[in-house]
């Protein structure tokens, strides 16, 4: 059984990023253990805390360490990832030399209500994951544009094409992650 951590870059209620993540998770094997990690309440990373980390840092680092693989879904903010997502990456990669991300396979998906699909946020996140030593699935690339039109009021895919594609991404990621078990 693989433990999948899911990190949603959006911290707002009813986010399309969370909807995309949930649709991807539906394609994982039935015995997958899935944990959505909360990043919205993490204090802003500060190197001064390396000696005596806040409890929220320790809890989050332990949650990250317990996972086998990660699914990241992010919106695009100002042509980059969200501040909350960057903060989460920093918190679990510090203190220097004690990163808990290394070696864990990752899937990156981005979404936007615009036609640009969060493509720049997707690639910014990929750059960070390279540095964090996380093997990242390259194909299929997951850029979801006009997400506000692809999900219904319950944040479920409103068409079979979107539903099937996102579930297939989850299935493909489970095969990718298995190579690193």
TrEMBL record:
Residues 3-147 form the NADPH-dependent FMN reductase-like domain. GO terms for molecular function: FMN binding; oxidoreductase activity. GO terms for cellular component: cytosol. InterPro entries: Flavoprotein-like_sf, FMN_Rdtase-like_dom, NAD(P)H-dep_reductase. It comes from the Bacteria. Gene3D superfamilies: 3.40.50.360. This is ACP phosphodiesterase.
């Amino acid at each position: 059984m693989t433990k999948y951590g899911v990190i949603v870059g959006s911290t707002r209620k009813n986010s399309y990023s969370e909807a995309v993540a949930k649709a991807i998770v539906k394609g994982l094997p039935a015995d997958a253990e899935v944990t959505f990690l909360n990043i919205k309440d993490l204090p802003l990373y500060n190197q001064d805390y390396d000696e005596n980390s806040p409890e929220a840092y320790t809890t989050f680092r332990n949650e990250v360490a317990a996972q086998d693989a990660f699914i990241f879904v992010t919106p695009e903010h100002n042509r980059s990832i969200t501040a909350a997502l960057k903060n989460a990456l920093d918190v679990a990669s510090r203190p220097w030399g004690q990163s808990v991300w290394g070696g864990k396979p990752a899937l990156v998906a981005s979404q936007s209500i615009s036609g640009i699909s969060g493509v720049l946020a997707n690639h910014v996140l990929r750059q960070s994951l390279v540095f964090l030593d996380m093997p990242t699935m390259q194909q299929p690339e997951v850029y979801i544009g006009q997400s506000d039109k692809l999900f219904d009021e319950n944040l479920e895919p409103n068409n079979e094409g979107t539903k099937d594609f996102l579930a297939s991404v989850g299935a493909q990621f489970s095969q990718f992650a298995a190579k690193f078990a």
